[in-house]
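Attaching the record inline, Q. Sequence:
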Amino acid sequence: MKTYLVTGGAGFIGSNYIHYMFKKYGDDIRIINVDALTYAGNLENLKDVEDRDNYTFVKANICDRDAINKIFEENDIDRVVHFAAESHVDRSIVNPEIFVETNVLGTATMLNAAKKAWELPDGTFKEGKKFLHVSTDEVYGSLDDDPNAYFYETTPYDPHSPYSASKASSDMLVKAYMDTYKFPANITNCSNNYGPYQFPEKLIPLVINNALAGKDLPVYGDGKNVRDWLFVEDHAKAIDMVQEKGKLFETYNVGGHNEKQNIEIVKTIIDVLREELDDSDPRKAKLSYDLIKYVTDRKGHDRRYAIAPDKIKKEIGWEPETMFKEGIRKTIKWYFDHNEWMEHVTSGDYEKYYAKMYDKR
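Structure, as predicted:
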């Protein structure tokens, strides 16, 4: 039975990955989820798995060297899947230091702990161990409007926000460990994820929640910034396939082939909501493009991201399965069916509950 150490598993992508892994492997794996339970970490995301005998939650910060080393000392970890990161660009503009601390120093702590646990006296590493560092396409910077321009694994790094700079730095650390120590690792750089359990500061859940409440839908600048959208379960599958089939020391870009302007995303959500709501629902009358409000553009706002996932398809056989038209409907339905989850998140009730549970005063 393989033991997986998942960092940031109470967050959006991490929790979806855990659900995917249990759905695929059932009782044949063990997962240890390490999360500091910051505002974006929510154990309600994992209610369905918390009672499994092969699942363990550990509340710890990835910068806490003693806590992370203890986990490795007490468990024979086969795989590390490193999601834990501060990831919201706007927050990084306001407070860059916490992004450097978590994303750079936290990654260094994880690398050192895994190296210490897995390294043999001759400097090689125990067979079968692997560290996967989950990163972002934002490290590559911004593309122009040329539809034939894409990010490849060989694209030079050119980060423009404190967030993307911190992720680029963490990528470089992992690359350095692979080059210097032949540390058994891979890096994945993904495009924008969407789907269940996403914290509503991000575009899609924010627009869904605001639209249903009849609130303004803020759109940066002219709304024509382009992102490549990846359904989160497709991403989870890609991570698993890289862990099992990826060549050591390689980077794999994970993209969705779903390029959309931000304004397209907002209008699509309004259209789908209007289709899904009954005519008798009072919320439907408020749903219109008039809710869209253009606001001052984000500082250093990248114009376009687009990933070419050619390498991961060729070497591993992964490609996205969920096109945006299908994925956005799945996502909206999930939020419809989990209104209580959204209410807890937007009210902050989940933070109060887990603060009390873990004596976080």
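The longest strand covers residues 29-35. The mean pLDDT is 93.

More tomorrow.
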